[in-house]
Specification:
Blueprint (H helix, E strand, L loop, with lengths): L4 H10 L4 E5 L3 H14 L3 E5 L1 H7 L1 H14 L5 E8 L2 H9 L4 E4 L13 H17 L3 E6 L24 H4 L3 H11 L3 E4 L21 H10 L4 E4 L7 H9 L12 H8 L3 E6 L1 H17 L6 H22 L7
Parallel strand pairs: 1-2, 1-8, 2-3, 3-4, 4-5, 5-6, 6-7, 7-8
Helix pairs in contact: 2-13, 5-6, 6-8, 8-9, 10-12, 12-13
The structure holds glyceraldehyde-3-phosphate, 1,3-dihydroxyacetonephosphate (13P), sodium ion and zinc ion.
Length: 328
């Protein structure tokens, strides 16, 4: 059954677990996530970006979610818009049956220009007012994702803030967080503490200098009842890098967010953990493997099925690690 983000994260806070929010763009990813949730008895957050909505088509995406909910009627499903950029994208997501929307007002509507505090409050407050009328939850974001190592916003994949950012912008200010939650009435707050989207987050295993989990702890002390969200939380596992590279891929050495850091976050108010890159890598590794080992193969099912299975395995692992398993 469909539930809102607020309902799910209130339960997660009460029972002290985190919920991975997995991005989906197609049927294979949807089936893979649901199979993992079913196998581990976990509630689910499915999230679709604007890019996913454009890729799959809003109508197809909405019917896909209907289908997944129908196949697994016993699984609580929150359908969430990832990184909404203005009021309209949030409103149309609600029209298509999303039970939760993110209004990311940390950036202007172009998705590139860091926005000031007042812009963020104003646009997020508008969305919260509208979404709450419709019984839909809202995630806001304060602070801009990007690397504390380089000061860069998002790299290669073309997402996120452009140019060089200061530590002031890259770390959510706890005082501002208190004011922001009060002013906007968001149900969940995404905070910036050194993570970024994509595979290239850190050039070494991250320590407190580049992954500022202490910021999360401070915000949780100040806002003990606010559900916190970690974006850019793929762990970029070495074994997935290896499979891709073993079968002709060219990923450069890189580090993601260690699972133990996420677990530390879950002890301090983190309830939603966004993961896309790990699943992309899990699928791509298998597709490369099948096509390399069987160059004459051309039936998509022959590589998409192993890809789905690898994604299910990754999702099951995160459900276990975040203690979501058994909470469905
Ligand atoms: O925000 C980043 C997520 O990984 C979604 O990425 O916008 O390419 O679908 P996307
Ligand atoms: P990753 O790129 O680390 O998987 O982060 C995904 C994300 O934050 C989606 O909003
Ligand atoms: Na989100
Ligand atoms: Zn994100």
């Amino acid at each position: 059954a469909r539930i809102t983000l607020r309902q799910l994260l209130d339960h997660a806070a009460e029972h002290e677990y985190g919920v991975p929010a997995f991005n989906l763009n197609n049927m294979e990813q949807g089936l893979a996530i649901m199979a993992a949730a079913d196998a581990t008895d976990s509630p689910v957050i499915l999230q679709a970006s604007r890019g996913a909505r454009a890729y799959a088509n809003d109508v197809v995406l909405a019917k896909l979610i209907d289908g997944l909910v129908e196949i697994y009627p016993h699984i609580p499903v929150c359908m969430h818009l990832d990184h909404g950029n203005n009021e309209a994208t949030c409103a149309t997501a609600i029209q298509y049956g999303f039970t939760s929307v993110m209004m990311d007002g940390s950036l202007k509507a172009d998705g590139k220009t860091p926005a000031d505090y007042n812009y963020n409050v104003e646009i997020t407050r508008n969305v919260t007012k509208m979404a709450h009328w419709a019984g839909v939850s809202v995630e806001g974001e304060l602070g801009v994702l990007g690397s504390l190592e380089s000061g860069q916003g998002e790299a290669e994949d073309g997402h996120g803030a452009e140019g060089t950012l200061s530590h002031d912008q890259l770390l959510t200010d706890p005082d501002e967080a208190v004011k922001f939650v009060e002013a906007t009435k968001v149900d969940a707050l995404a905070v910036a503490m050194g993570t970024s989207h994509g595979a290239y987050k850190f050039t070494r295993k991250p320590d407190g200098e580049v992954l500022a989990m202490n910021v999360i702890e401070e915000i949780h002390r100040r806002l003990p009842t606010t559900h916190l969200v970690m974006h850019g939380s793929s762990s970029v596992p070495q074994d997935l890098q290896d499979i891709i590279n073993q079968y002709g891929g060219q990923m450069k050495p890189t580090w993601g967010v260690p699972v133990e850091e996420i677990q530390r976050g879950i002890k301090h108010g983190v309830r939603k953990i966004n993961i896309d890159t790990d699943n992309r890598m899990a699928m791509t590794g298998q597709i490369r493997k099948v096509l390399t080992e069987n160059p004459s193969e051309f039936d998509p099912r022959k590589y998409l099925k192993p890809a789905m299975e690898a994604m299910t395995k990754l999702c099951k692992q995160r459900f276990e690690e975040f203690n979501t398993a058994g909470k469905g």
